[in-house]
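Course assignment 3, question 2. Fill in each field.
Student: A.L.
Task: Predict the tertiary structure for the chain below.
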Amino acid sequence: MMKIAAIAALVGSAAAFAPAPAGKASVALNAEMSKSLPFLTNPKNTDGLIGSVGFDPLGWSDMWDIKWLQEAEIKHGRVSMLATVGFVTSQFYTLPMFTDLHQDDSNAVPSAIGMSAMMQIVFFAGAEEWRTNNGKITMENMFEDPARVPGDLGWGTDRLIGKSEEEINKLKLQEIKNGRLAMLAIGGMIHHNFVTGEPLL
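Answer field:
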């Protein structure tokens, strides 16, 4: 009887130092981590969104309307895609009426054309934003209509006719990824010219 008690005590002591089994708690913890930043928790409000990889290190999706954030990313991506093309094109081609304003360094163009021309761009961009959103351009009212889809301005929708949901989502993902790349690209182009003082190409 004494031997059995001694063996039981030893087994109990040894078990206290055994590693804990990887159970459900460990799996649950891993499931909560971000795919893109595994040292941060997954931003739950981005789950299920097209193009989401759990990247939200500042926690904006917990602070602001996720549809507003989607709209902002898509619009910035579209503008950046146009900007990258324009940045390179303006180095080699100038509209006939602006030949005397040509600049090899695209960073110098805003200074060359002046403040009034830049303000025209800002004005028309703002007017188009107002028009396409029926005057609802704030975070509070842009998505009052629950059917309003971020980034959907009714342009090019004829290209989606006859396509499956999977095909449409693939096109949306391509746009988001190209937009993200373009945002990085235009930043790199601008800083290249700024740092080197030379044209891009």
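Instructor remarks: The CA atoms of residues 55 and 187 lie 20 Å apart. The chain is about 55% helix and 0% strand.
Grade: pending
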